[in-house]
């Protein structure tokens, strides 16, 4: 997954994503859910006495560059549990 910068609205919803130096605008209502972080598969450890997040926030968004020739793409923005930063992943294709 690739790290990205996400700009949020005052209501806490993603509005724009900066990826590879380009700003993508979110053009549809984003959908949010949470996923469990597989901590047992990671070498990451929580500092003693501090909580360790095991749930990651995920937003599915539809983005475009805004140009008439720009396609609308669907991405999943995944909050990196250990750092709180954001990463983008392409959603899995639905099985036929």
Folded structure, characterized:
By secondary structure, the chain is an all-beta fold. The chain has one domain. It contains no helices and seven strands. It has strands spanning 2-8, 14-19, 22-26, 31-36, 55-64, 73-79, 86-89. A six-stranded antiparallel beta barrel has the order 1-2-3-5-6-7. Strand 1 (2-8) and strand 2 (14-19) form a beta hairpin. The two termini are 25 Å apart.
Features of this protein?
mainly beta; 96 residues; 47% strand; six-stranded antiparallel β-barrel
Topology:
Layout: E1 2-8, E2 14-19, E3 22-26, E4 31-36, E5 55-64, E6 73-79, E7 86-89
Low-confidence stretches: none
Order of helices and strands: EEEEEEE
Number of H- or I-type helical stretches: 0
Strand content: over 45%
Q: Whole-Å distance between the termini? A: 25 Å
Overall shape: it is elongated
Overall pLDDT, averaged?
Answer: 84
Characterize the largest beta sheet: strand count, sense, and whether it forms a barrel: 6 strands, antiparallel, barrel
Helix content: under 10%
Q: Which class best fits the helix and strand makeup?
A: mainly beta
Brief characterization of the structure:
With 96 residues, the chain is mainly β. Helix content is 0%, strand content 47%.
């Amino acid at each position: 997954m690739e790290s990205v910068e996400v700009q949020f609205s005052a209501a806490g919803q993603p509005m724009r994503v900066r990826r590879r130096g380009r700003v993508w605008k979110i053009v549809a209502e984003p959908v949010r859910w949470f996923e469990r972080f597989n901590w047992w598969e990671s070498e990451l450890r929580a500092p003693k006495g501090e909580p360790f997040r095991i749930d990651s926030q995920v937003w599915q968004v539809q983005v475009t560059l805004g140009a008439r020739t720009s396609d609308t793409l669907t991405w999943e923005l995944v909050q990196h549990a250990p750092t709180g930063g954001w990463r983008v992943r392409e959603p899995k294709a639905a099985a036929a």
